[in-house]
Amino acid sequence: MASAYASKSLEQALSKIKSINCTEDNAVSVDFSVASEDDEINEQLMLLEDAIKKKNIVRFAYTNSHDEIKEFQVEPVRLQYKWYSWYLIGYYEKYQDYCMFKLVRMERLKVTDIRNTKIHDLSDIKQKGSVNNIVNIKLHGKAAIKSKCREYLNGRITKEFENGDFEFCFSAPEHEMFWYGMILSFGNKVKVIEPQEIKERIIKICKEIQTVYEE
């Protein structure tokens, strides 16, 4: 956590973790370097944490999953690390709803002097499924990719067949690229069963890829 986020409040926890990794002959070795963020993300994290504590509205430019750049003004509610990235949960006063923003897609972040319009109940945010925009996916996989599905897609096997094939279910943010790219990398060893929109999305991108290489 401390390698991903520069915060003095984490120093004590980090020292405890380091204590199990201090000698060469230790049976346990922990390396968090893969989670280390660059200076720009750390600066954003500190600005947003301060804005959340002071309850001040923030403004920023955001590139969405369709590569469209839009300006946003939201009430910052929580910083969240999941799916290998940092996110901001923000509140729209205009639409009276919450939304999740990936920090790496944010630019020109500015903390304003405008105060939040309400006190935010974090339990209420969790009840609103729209915040995470989660999609539930079921796929059929060949035996050769069973271990990779378990390793990279963070789900569970719901059915196994005599030939080693299996059905696998997992949940993920709809417009994130990690899980989608992983499914594509499995090629013809996997087939999405549901939802239909994900199947259509994969068919479309595969046809576009084929066209590029035929040209």
Please tell me the CATH architecture of the largest domain by its name: Roll
Strand segment tally: 9
CATH class of the largest domain: Mainly Beta
- Determine the structural class based on helices, strands and strand pairing: alpha+beta
- Count of individual domains: 3
In helices, the fraction of residues equals 25-40%
Q: How far apart lie the N and C ends?
A: 46 Å
Shape: globular
- In DSSP terms (H or I, runs of 4 or more residues), the helix count works out at 6
Please, could you describe this protein's structure?
By secondary structure, the protein is of the alpha+beta class. The protein has helices spanning 11-18, 39-54, 122-127, 146-152, 177-185, 196-214; strands spanning 56-63, 69-82, 85-92, 97-102, 106-115, 134-141, 156-160, 166-173, 190-194. It folds into three domains: 1-36, no CATH class; 38-131, SH3 type barrels (Roll), CATH 2.30.30.520; 134-214, Alpha-Beta Plaits (2-Layer Sandwich). The protein has six helices and nine strands; from the N terminus they run ααβββββαβαββαβα. The mean pLDDT is 85.
